[in-house]
Design goal:
Amino acid/polyamine transporter I, globular, mainly alpha
Amino acid sequence: MTEHSGQFTKYFGLSTGIALIITSIIGSGVYKKAASMSLECESPEILLGSWILAGLVTLMGVLTLAEIAILLPVSGGPYAYLREIFGEKTAFAYGWASFACIQTASTAAIAYVFAQSLGELINIPNVSPDIASISLWGVFQPFDNLGVKLVAVGLIVLLTMINCRGVHMGGGVGNVITVIVVCSILLTIVLAFLSSSGSFQNLRAESSTYPPPMMKEPAGFIRVLFVTMLASFWAYEGWINVGFVGDEIREPQKNIPRILIFGILIIGGLYVMVNAAYLYIIPMDELMAIGKTENSVVAVDVIRKILGPTGANAMSILIVITTVGCTNSTILTSSRIYYAMAGDGMFFKSAGYIDPVRKVPTVSLIQFCIWSSVLVFSGSFDQLTNMLVFAQFVFYALVIGGVFVLRRKMPDAPRPYKTLGYPVVPILYILFCIVLIVNTLMEQTRDAVIGIALILVGAPIYLYLKSKK
């Protein structure tokens, strides 16, 4: 590690930790993903079922991760866990994937929704269709929706500058925004179900084109369900982030399980209720029409239908604030991975620097900012989220499988918390990950292949770093 580096401060307690996980997760999916999910399932019951099942699966992962996080309460999260459990190569694969296509793509996607929501309030200029249609290798269209992409990059740069000022400033922003996030979602739920514009019939009525073509193929219902859940898992993305700041959590053995479990229960309940509220106001055919419009945000359309243009503008402002908070939390937590990797000689050495005054990994933050900004130009919101969820679940399965390895390697270690439902819960979670990975390769091949390619780029980089050690 670079000479004269400082050390992390113990900033996060129970309440600030729960605030961190809420702002790490609730950022864009809850406001936008219902529309794209409707295009896959064409059924309100499947859509709501996907949110419930995704929440239950995430909870299974959380129940297992809490035991691992207590045994290994260090910064770096899954990177540190995989290093201890499976060794250096697997840990590097995760760390590189996180940098190449998981956490950076997550930041890019959330900032993307920030810019789209801001576009509801102000006019964001765009380039001509001829320029927007320019393609690289027939895969990427970097100039498509260029105005929105430039605004997204501006947000990433600004929040990186804030986090370089110190964890108290970055964490303080998250605490304030958490209150705004939860209140805005609760307000949406209340307004929707009190409105005369909605109907409970919408919660049961499929689209006029139901069933979707995939439903008619072998194992069609399962395939539709998993493709729909791929989108909902994006909205739960970030639950593992609390492990990235393990060194900065006070009383980690007591607080880590509480932060994870309470945080997911709160978020899952909010997700199911707010998506039911969307469907109460907007029937499936109308929701599908929203999903076909690139820069639309379903939460804004719902409030517009209830309160008119003024209400839609207010919701856009709330989403702008929410996505700022989520982008901030992701930048704050994710940069700690590369700090931990640099300390092991498994990332660029400069990333291991901790500012001795501000106590933050400033170089790692800047590196994270640069690649996140590049990814903004690589695809649309849904392409980014599909790619990162696919890549993430490969490593989620490995991390959760680590609980079996640690039970064998550290049998006598104190475990103030043990995985509820062990071994059934972690086994079910791993099986679910495998099915989701295979189904995504079959149904969202482009996004899955790009994710795999970015992960494989890490192989020669690993060999280079190994030779330098």
